[in-house]
Amino acid sequence: MMFREDFLWGGALAANQCEGGWNEGGRGLANSDMLPFGDQRMDVMRGDLDPRALAPDSFYPARKGIDFYHRYKQDIELFAQMGFKCLRLSIAWSRIFPKGDEAEPNEEGLAFYEDVFRTCRAHGIEPLVTLNHYDVPMHLVDAYGGWRDRRLVDLFDRYSRTVFERYRGLVNYWLTFNEINIMTQACFMAAGIIFEQGENRYATVHTAVHHVLVASARAVGACHELCPGAKIGCMLNAGVFYPATCDPDDVLAAQAENRSHYMFTDVQVRGAYPSYVLKEYARHGFEVPYRDDDREVLAANLVDFVSFSYYSTRVAKAHAEGQFDSNLLRSAPNPYLKQEPWGRFIDPKGLRVTMNEIWDRYQKPLFIVENGLGAPDVPEDSGEIEDDYRVEYLRAHIEAMRETVELDGVELMGYTCWGPIDLVSVATGQMRKRYGFIYVDRDDSGAGSFERRKKKSFEWYRRVIASNGEDLA
């Protein structure tokens, strides 16, 4: 058998892309609610443009998402029909602590997620819960400046302990911060930072990085303390950088790019900043803002597994600046690979390369918690949605995943593809960038009935799960 008997097949969602209900159930305003649709979105995401200064008629797609807040029972039932063993979700911090700094949590928000997780369990689906998926209460942006402020470490500790205590025994798998390495590119989206004129951006960003890493470690410790038997992991936006050529300068450039992302998991898995990061910090005149027992907290609270998203590899070329792909990272061209509609390279073999590199680096169990193809699916006149291109993409990646387990001996816990139902793209704010096995009737302008409809790939993925990955036809 290629995959373990308890392999966790399923799909992955995020509150800020599917939930909606932004002003219901006592929830507070979050940074994700301030990401506009259109040309200004990227500037806001990076922290270059203050979203509070946008035009009053700006459209914010996350505020309604796909209305999972009201339709989660229906959606989880559809996931159960596909045979999901696992569903990755996230908790909206502002639904538990609407402002982020209250002394007491919002009971209505706690009860909502409890029912979501119980609904999953009623269908035999294991929840895999991300504590923070591109989510900062806007009050913490307004009053504290986001993760640049050390006080958020304690506030996040209060939040994480609250949900661990409430969902103890109900949730057995946790992640701390989604795609933690993206916070250096999308500073507002991932860290609630809006840059001030003239500030030292490097120092601001890496101060926030330290705060998040300490908060992550404290969450790991709290989970181990409060939820005996539960497992908690980190989460990386992965996909190795290949050197553009065998020119040693290109090889060094690729190594530097890869290290800039692995630095986060190096700390979360190994418990200390690696020497190459400390050397870089020294060159920038930056010192890690250690406080109190930070070093001990980082060293003592190591993650149980390494989870990651994989959509594409990228290419590094020395002395050249690449193009942004749709995941906010730059890449030089790769003439050997085709590209998907939004520009990312389609590279199933790169998944095997990436898995082996992470496994060799850490020797910790791996969990692929995002992988998928965004495409502008168009229903036929009959209402059918023929998405054979999605099946082809996923088949090739699952085959590569299978080879990595069978031939290379990598320990893999599960695979939750992104996103099993169409949802709002975090990078573009679009609905037409569809990933799901389930079509949602909503367009880029926000119009639509929100009706759910199965695509052709729905039945294919059901067979994959039922056969534990053996039937990929």
Walkthrough of the structure:
It contains 15 helices and 14 strands. It is α/β, with parallel strands linked by helices. The strands form four sheets. It has an eight-stranded parallel barrel with strand order 1-2-3-4-5-7-11-12, surrounded by four helices. Strands 6-8 form a two-stranded parallel ribbon. A two-stranded antiparallel sheet has the order 9-10. Helix 14 links the parallel strand 11 and strand 12 (412-418). It starts with 7 loop residues before the first strand and ends in a 7-residue tail after the last helix. 51% of the residues are buried. One of its GO terms (biological process) is carbohydrate catabolic process.
Features:
473 residues, alpha/beta, TIM Barrel, two-stranded parallel sheet, 39% helix, hydrolase, 6-phospho-beta-glucosidase, Glyco_hydro_1_AS
CATH superfamily: Glycosidases
Portion of residues within helices: 25-40%
- Quote the distance from N terminus to C terminus: 18 Å
CATH architecture: Alpha-Beta Barrel
Contiguous low-pLDDT stretches (5 residues minimum) are none
Strand order of the largest sheet: 1-2-3-4-5-7-11-12
Principal-axis shape equals globular
Q: Count every beta strand, where a strand is a DSSP E run of 2 or more residues.
A: 14
Biggest sheet descriptor: 8 strands, parallel, barrel
The SSE string, one letter per element, is EHHHEHHEHHEHHEEHHHEEEEHEHEEEH
CATH domain class name: Alpha Beta
Q: How much of the residues is beta strand, in percent?
A: 5-15%
How many domains? The number is 1
InterPro entries: GH (IPR017853), GH_1_N_CS (IPR033132), Glyco_hydro_1 (IPR001360), Glyco_hydro_1_AS (IPR018120)
GO molecular function: 6-phospho-beta-glucosidase activity
Active site: 370 (nucleophile)
Protein name: 6-phospho-beta-glucosidase
